[in-house]
Structures are given as structure tokens and as C-alpha cells.
Amino acid sequence: MEDGAEAPPEGQTVPSNVPKTPNEELKKLLSFKVYKRRWFVLLVLCLLNCSNATLWLTFAPVADVSAKYLNVTLEEIDWLSLVYMVVAIPLSFGTTWMLDTLGLRITLILGAWLNMFGGLVRFFGEPAELQFTIKYPTVMLGQTLGAIAQPLIIFTPTKLAALWFPDHQRATANMIASMSNPLGILLANIISPMMVKTPTQIPTLLIAYAGPACFICFLATVGIRSSSPPTPPSASAESSGSEPFVQLLRNKAYLILLLCFGSGIADFAGICGALFIVFGIVGAGALGLYVDKTKKFTEATKINMCFAALSCIAFSVVSLMPHQKVAVAAVCSLFGFFGFSIYSVAMELSVECSYPVGEATSAGLIFISGQVQSILYMTLLQALTKRLADSPLSTCGGVVLSWKVPMLVMAGLFSFFTCCFVIFFHTRYRRMEAEEQATYGTKESSVSTVSESVASVEK
């Protein structure tokens, strides 16, 4: 047995309550292994995801100071963040191909190097004592390199979970890796304002973000030695990414998931955004553990989307009332807990309903759908705003525009897509059926059979 492999103790007998199977099939079941180094690979991905998110939103929380230092307008500072959305959409298709053909190791290492160069270019192009006219283009180049790295990193959680983790840990691993991105967003919103009070402190901020990126690149390059373990952790890992993505065009359940879950709206700013992320991470942790144990992907997603829609409606009403900051904070917390926590489970659900199409492809297309729809909704909602003088006072901050109509439209869109998903989305869990077929030679879907058998053998 390989060092670090987790398997039943040597000489363990099979209890009588294990379902009767041919000896060959039981031997095949027990041949699946998991390795302790899967946690290291997951750690590297989490650190990389978090680092890339901090590079993405380095300047947004200190936009005014950054604009003075770079001698540009606030609109140009906004583009330092928007470039991530612009670059991600066309490059996403190539990223899914890389993950499903070239493998996890090459994709992660390339993402780590691009992320590191992005951080370094921003810093080395910014000597505080020299006022170069190329300062802003240099920073934009660094942001663009980080934007190229983003799809290589953010598409990886479902692939890593499928290749390295057993079926009873996949949703949890996906959740941990996926939530590291919003954690990085939260850290950027905390660290940037904390470190930068004047324009001359911008270089210090840039090196603070570049340093961890270099260390993470070292960990990825030296520590990740293979795309997959020597022995697969499950039957589905052996055939991961074996079918072309064109099959998805004929998969009704996947197309509904692509449209409905991809209809995400941009995050809220300031304290609202912080609460949204924090409670979203808490909710994702609880939901990931629950789904790993019960395998109720569809039920969990539908229930959470319904509560998220109700929270969105409440937010659209409460946020427009004066002197209701506590209520707004509470609603944002609920919105994050129920809404944001769905992300990792929905990514796993996309793999289950589209198997044997590659994990990166099925999850990546949903991410692309979300990016495209986010741009459309942001443009629409911005166009629907009115000057504050024409509308009631808003609760969240000193804005000069009324978001009364946009907030109601947002709530309507969220509710509409939630209803569509709840009513029309139905699917088999194709990956778990394939695993049971490979293990027991039966086509009937009984999600708990494999996990219960393994648990019985391990007792």
C-alpha cells in the first residue's frame, strides 16, 4: 500500500451487514484509496484562490487614494477590477480544455506563475520616488496577468474534488476551495483600507500582496507533483473528463442550471458585502457537510435558493427605508447565508447532472454564464437608477443615486429564476450512478449504498 493511503486495517473482515457482492466487485471497491497529500493540494488551491482575489480588488477599497497616486480618474481605477471580468469570459473556454486535457497540475502551476508575475509587475512598475508616465499601464498589465490566471484557478475546485477526494468528501472539498475566493475579497476590503491612508503608501500595499503570491507559486511548483493520485479515490475519478462538452447542449437539466444559477447579481459594497461574505462562508460550510452526508444536492439547492429569494426581496424593501441599518445588516447576513452558500453545492450538482463531461467544463460554463449575466444586469440596474433628490433616502451609505427601482427589479429577477429552477430542474445523479455501476454492476441509483458499504467495512 502507498504511504499516506487511508484504507481498512489489514486483516479486517467484512461484517455480515455489508450488501452481498461478488468477491471481484468487493475487491474493486476496496482498491480505491485516498492520500493525505490531497489536503496539501487543496491548501495550495485555497491560498492561490485567495491571493488572486486580493490582487483583483486591491485598489477598489481605496479608489480615491489610488487615483491620486496613479494620476488617473476613478473610472480608470474601476477598470483595474473590471478587467478580470472582461478577460475571464473569452479565456474561460481555453481553461476548461486545459483542465480536462492537460491536467490539474499544469493548470494550477501556470495559474500560480501568472498570479505571481501579476503581483510583481504591479510593484516593480511603481517606484514611489519616480513619477513615470507609464505607471497606470504597468499596473493594468499586472492586473491583466492576474485576470488571465483567475479562470485557471477558479475553475479548479470541482476537478480537484473529483480527482483527489472520495465521494463523501467531495462537496466539502469543493466548498473549502470555492469559499477561499470570497475570503480573499473580504481580506482585500479589510487590508487595503487598513494599510493605505495616503498615496505614498500604495507601494507598500502592492508588495504586501506580491509577497504571498510568490510564496504560493513556490508551493505549487515544488509541492504539486501530479494531477491525480496513483490510485483513484472513487470509480468516477477513473473516467473524469471523458466526454466532449457538446453533450451539455442536449442536457435539459444542465441548461436550466446554467441559466438559473448563472443569473447571479454583483456583490454589495461595504459592510453589506462583508456580512454577505462572512455568513456565506458559514452557510457554505454547513451546507457542504450536510450534502456530503446526505447527497441531497437538488433539495439543498432548491431550498436555499427559495430562502435566498425571500432574503433578496426583504433586502430590496428594507434597504430603501431610512434609519434601518440593523435590519439591512440582518437581511444581508441571511442573504449571504442562504444565497452565497449555494455556490459550491451548485458546482457539484452541475458535475452530477452532466457526467461524464469534464468537471472543469460543466462548472466553468456556469461561471461564464454568471459573468455574462452579471455584466448585463449591472448595466441594466445602473441604467434604472435615479438621482437621490427624486427618491426616498437610502440606508446604505452616502450614495447620490436612488436604487429603488433597480433593487425591485433585482428581487424580481432573482425570484423569477428561482421559481424556474424549483419547478423545472430535475435530474439524475449521473456520476454517483456511474460509481455504483462500476462497483456493484447495477444501474439502479441508490446514493447511499456505496458510502454505507465502505463505512461498514471500516468499522
UniProtKB/TrEMBL annotation:
Sorted alphabetically, which SUPFAM superfamilies does this protein's record hold? MFS general substrate transporter
Coiled-coil portions: none
Q: Give the main localization category.
A: membrane
Annotated region Disordered: the residues are 1-20
Alphabetically ordered keywords of this record: Membrane, Transmembrane, Transmembrane helix
What membrane topology does the annotation report for this chain? Multi-pass membrane protein
Gene3D superfamilies xrefs: MFS general substrate transporter like domains
Q: What is this protein called?
A: Major facilitator superfamily (MFS) profile domain-containing protein
Q: Output the lineage of the source organism.
A: Eukaryota, Metazoa, Chordata, Craniata, Vertebrata
